[in-house]
Amino acid sequence: MQKPVDGPGEEASPDRGKPIFAARLTPYRSLGEKGFVLLMLFVGASCFASGILFISIGAWPVFGFFGLDALLIWGAFKLNYRSGRAFEEVAVWRDDIEFRQVSPAGRARIHRLNPFWTRFVVERHEEFGIVRMALRERNREIDIGAFLNPSDRDSFAMAFNAVLAKARH
C-alpha cells in the first residue's frame, strides 16, 4: 500500500530539497487489532466449550489439545503481525534515488541509486499481473514491494515509472 512518507525517510539535506516523489510501502493486513481480539475470543470460547464437552464424556486429555490449538493460532497471528511491521520507503530527487528497507526488528538498509542509470524492472504474469518489481543499477538488483498485493503493485509501478522518467528529464 502506498502512503506518503512521514518521518525519518523524508529527511533530506538542505541542498537536496524536497523529493519529487516519496512513498512508504507497507504490507497489507486484512485483520485489524479489534478483529484479532474478537477472533481469539471466538476461538478460545469454541475450544473451551469443545473441551468441556470432551471432559463430560470422559476424554479429559483432549481438553489440553484444544488449548494448544488456540495457543498455536494466537502464535501464528502474532508472527504474522510482527512481519507486518516491515516497510520500504522510496524517495526520488532529480539526481538521486534513496530506497530504504526496514525489517520487522527495525533494522534499516539504505540503497542509493542514480536515476539516470537505474532501470525499474517489472515482471508480469498473464493471469496474476505484476509478480516482481526491482530497481536495477549496473550489476545490482534490489527487489521492491515484494509484500504488496497485485493492485498496489500496479498503482506503484505506474506512479514510479512516471516519476523515474520525470527525474531523467
Notes on the structure:
- The chain is an alpha+beta fold and 169 residues long.
- The protein has 2 domains: 2-29 and 84-168, Pleckstrin-homology domain (PH domain)/Phosphotyrosine-binding domain (PTB) (PH-domain like), CATH 2.30.29.30; 33-83.
- 39% of the residues lie in helices and 28% in strands.
- It is built from 3 helices and 8 strands, in the order E-E-H-H-E-E-E-E-E-E-H.
- The chain has helices at residues 33-56, 61-83, 150-168, and strands at residues 2-3, 21-25, 87-93, 96-102, 108-113, 118-125, 129-137, 140-143.
- Strands 1-2-3-4-5 form a 5-stranded antiparallel sheet, with helices on one face. It has a 3-stranded antiparallel sheet with strand order 6-7-8, with helices on one face.
- The longest helix is centred in the N-terminal third of the chain and has 24 residues, at 33-56.
- The model is unreliable at 1-14 (pLDDT under 50).
